[in-house]
Amino acid sequence: MTSALPAERPRSLPDEVRRYAEAARGFMPPPEGEALFAAAAAYAQVGPVVEIGTYCGKSTIYLAAAVGQAGQFVITVDHHRGSEENQPGWEYHEPDLVDPAVGLLDTLPSFRATLAPTGLEQHVIAIIGRSADVARLWHEPVGMLFIDGGHSDAAATADYEGWAPKIALGGALAIHDVFPDPADGGQAPYRVYLRAMASGAFSEVRVTGSLRVLERVGDGIG
Ligand code: SAH
Ligand code: MG
Question: What separation in angstroms does the CA of 23 have from each of 116, 118, 163?
Fold first, then answer.
């Protein structure tokens, strides 16, 4: 079950970047962010890192800090209107992220403000759009896909079906918010994880909190 990540010079997250990441608003506990950084540093050697679910850029900081050494980019995709659970009346709604002019959530300004002082902007390409639409237009093999978008079954499944086939052999699929026990959280990312494992195309290389990293070892993504 546990094979090694691709060989890589030992690297650690610079303290300054860690401080920015931990101060950023969003949903990425520090140990999982560090694990994300390590995985991205390894798999950026295979190709670009694609993140589904930018929100305000917290996880993007960990990814961006990792890809520079390989001369790679983070492509972070979000329509910036929030997931179901970010809407008014839901558990993860943050009222100050609503754009009063249009009456809708808009996390893009916060994302820009979060990333600017980190000095990592040049490693990040932000795409504003729906994950499934962007996936249809994306043809470059992906070094690491990080799925952290909508947590409904429909959204998580669309992210997997749209993007997982684009992961290069030797690249990786990282999934956030994988909770085998329903008491810990929603089950959609866990179901995507089970599906990826059942396909035989992936081998698990890392488990940190709710973050799972699977290496692509074969064809037949089902
Ligand atoms: N990675 C972030 C958290 C992402 S929250 C962090 O570290 O804090 C999930 C994000 O997915 C939200 O910003 C939401 O707007 C986005 N999202 C949900 N469904 C989407 C879809 N179909 N296409 C693009 N983005 C989507
Ligand atoms: Mg998450």
Answer: 13, 11, 30
